[in-house]
């Protein structure tokens, strides 16, 4: 039995972004309950050379829309990455969930062999087939940033666990 490219992408992105939204809700509530300035969490990072929470969420969202849209061969929405609050991040997640909700299996399935080029025209240019782009680049990048966002909040005392990370499945 084979698995479709759509089944391996859009539902996975949706599950994890919804879970990330829940984790952010818990972080915001934790900050309020403990009288912690929310920016402490939003600007927290695991190491000095890593991106802060805000940027981790933005990148996870970028991979969701980028991978899904490129596989569907549709124009990607552009966002300016100006989020500075939990509400801003929730709005960003909602926008990208609405975008991927508009993508159908018929738009993605069968695109395993299409060529996807990242960072075209730069020294970092990479060429992938649709399947390789999803499985060896898009999903690993997405999970890295979702996991890092979770780890930043967990490290900073937000009471979240594996069920929060996984979300509803």
From TrEMBL:
Signal peptide: none annotated. Coiled coil: none annotated. SUPFAM superfamilies: DinB/YfiT-like putative metalloenzymes. This is DUF1993 family protein. The lineage of its organism: Bacteria, Pseudomonadati, Pseudomonadota, Gammaproteobacteria, Pseudomonadales.
